[in-house]
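Reading a protein record of the kind used here takes only a little practice. Think of the row as the fold of the chain written in a discrete alphabet. A record is reproduced here so that you can trace the correspondence yourselves:
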Amino acid sequence: MGLGNPGPRYAGTWHNLGRRMVQALAERWGVAGRWTEWAGQARMVTRENIVLAQPLVYMNESGPCVRALLAQCHCLPNALLVVSDDFALPLGALRLRRRGSSGNHRGLASVIAALGTEGFARLRLGIGPVPPGE
């Protein structure tokens, strides 16, 4: 699940890096032309038994979408990998964890609240530090 914000206003922003990484993976796997919209909540594409998804809701409200998509796919949270930006990590740094807190990331906080667990993997993509005044 690649977190980000919908619409052209956010398309090229660092905040959409999670969405962009999932898109790049779909392109690499040759399935990028097969995205389908699911229940108005997410875009998804499948390759073998892997579902790539991008919520169509704002990042900070993505938890219910993630919960519904897991239910639709008959998956438990421990089968989930959430990809998101992280301004607390230096630009280009990666942090992969099997579980953990939101680390003050509102998108991850929404997912944790909706699932009722921190027991899902997350890949954080460094976009920091944030320049002063931004």
